[in-house]
Every structure is written in structure tokens, then in C-alpha cells.
Amino acid sequence: MDLYLPIANLSVNALVIIALGGVVGLLSGMFGVGGGFLTTPLLIFYGIPPTVAAASAASQVTGASVSGVFTHMARGTVDFRMGGVLIAGGVVGAGLGVLIFRMLQVIGQIDTVIGILYVLMLGGIGLLMAKESIQALVALKTGRKIQARKRRHHPLVAAMPMRWRFYRSGLYISPLAPLLLGMATGILTMLLGVGGGFILVPAMLYLLGMTTQSVVGTSLFQILFVTMATTMMHAMTTHAVDLVLALLLLIGSVTGAQLGTRISMTIRPEYLRILLAAIVLLVAARMALGLGFRPDEIYTVEIR
């Protein structure tokens, strides 16, 4: 079933796009990640222009985050004060991301930069995940317990001035730390169309020292509003948001997430983590291949 995407300016098979969203949703349900960091590469592999893929993926992440935020709010696991600071930083970062995005568009390098950032980001994350997963599997086989890391914020965070109390997170730190963290994720969201949770959650745990109970809910709270602001900025400045594409992805991701959640209950977490690391590294390798591969014909003319 072919469907025309007005912003991407091409026809796609709607069922294939829904299936791509379903794959991302499946991974989200299985591994407990937002899946946004895989949406953009998969769309690029299918032939969607990188700028449209990144902008539309951000709007899809917004829709997918709503139910998770309300669930965590009902459980009382959202630190609204911390979330507010992260959102403020994220909105500022998204604004800076707009300037960077437009500058790269003007010089004609935005597609290349998106590809390079994804290769570096997914490659680094995939290697770290693989290392931790292998350690967990070795410990599982040998019966040796991995020593738990002590919760403590980074010395650089401790050295920052003007401390606030974040009661829900159990922290007494400078708001400058979450503000800068929010700015970094805002820039990434604007450039890559990711929610940023795969970077935000580890940073909140290991840099800020937040309690595990409040990390996921606060992260989703920030992602919801920052991706919303990013989508609006993209729509008003880059004009790269394709709502038809985002809607198809959302239909697939909601369905896939339900199936993924059921599958995750039947597989050990250690095997899930190593599988996710392998998927991330494969996507990074495919992105790297696309950056280095030179086609036989650089320009083609197709007559329809």
C-alpha cells in the first residue's frame, strides 16, 4: 500500500513504515529503551532523507513518551524540580541545535554529520553495553557476584556553586549540572531525532547520582517536553517534520511495544542486554558502511 509523504517528497509502502515502527516498539518493550536512537537509522536505510528522518523521529518519540510519563506520575517517581531544570536546559539546547542544524544545511553537510554522529554514538554505546553484558554473563556462568557501584555524584558536579535540594532524587547539588546535561540532550534531540534517554539515564545515575527509582520517570518527563519543543522548532525552521511518517511510525511502535513487553518476561535480562548491544553495533556498522561506500554512479536520473 503506497502512500505519499509530502515533506519527504516520496512514496513509501505504509506497511513497511508501520513495520519499522513495530521493530522499534518491539525493541523498546523488550529492552526498556525509548528506541528513538534506532528509528532514524532504520528510516535512512529505507531511503528517507536524513533531515526528514531525524525531525520526524523526534515527533514520534513525543507520542510514544506520553503514556510512560503518566504511568510514572501516578507512581510518584517523577522529580518535577529536577525535570524542570532538565527541560529548561533541553529547550535551550534545542534552540542551539536549530542554529547548528541550519548552518550544516547551508553548507550542505547535515546528512554527513548526522551519519557520523550516529556511528560514533551507537558505536560507543554498543561497545559499553557489550562490555557490561559480557561481564554479567560471565558472572552468571561462574556464580560470581558483580560488586554494586556506590551511588555518588561526580566530583565536577560536587564542585559547582549554588546548590539546590532535589528531594525526590535525594540530591543536594548545583542546578547547573542538570541544566548543562539537559542542553546536551536538547542538541542531540534536534540533530538526531533521538529522545536522549539512552544518554540521559546513565548520566543521571552516574554523574548526578540520582536514585534509581526517580531516574526513568524524570527522564521520560524531560524527553516528552523537549521532543515536543524540538518538533515545533523543526516545523517552524527546517520544515522537515513529516506528520504522516510520524503517525505511521507511532502506530507500529505502540503495537510492537506491547509484544516486546511480553517477550521480555520470558528471556533473562543478561541475554536481552547482549542482544541489544549486538543490534546497536550492527546498526553502527551499517551506518559506517554507508558513509564510506562510494556508488558506481554518484548521480542517477530516473524516468517515471
Automatic annotation (TrEMBL):
What InterPro entries would the database entry show? TM_pro_TauE-like, TSUP/Inactive_protease-like
Q: Name one Pfam family in it.
A: TauE
Topological type in the membrane: Multi-pass membrane protein
The superkingdom of the source organism is Bacteria
Transmembrane segments annotated in the record for this chain: 12-38, 44-70, 82-104, 116-140, 170-199, 205-228, 240-259, 271-289
Q: Which UniProt keywords apply?
A: Cell membrane, Membrane, Transmembrane, Transmembrane helix
Q: Where in the cell is it found?
A: Cell membrane; Membrane
A cellular component annotation (GO) from this entry: plasma membrane
Name the major location. Answer: membrane
Describe the family membership recorded for this protein in Swiss-Prot or TrEMBL: Belongs to the 4-toluene sulfonate uptake permease (TSUP) (TC 2.A.102) family.
Question: What protein name does the entry list?
Answer: Probable membrane transporter protein
> Organism, per UniProt?
Sphingobium indicum F2
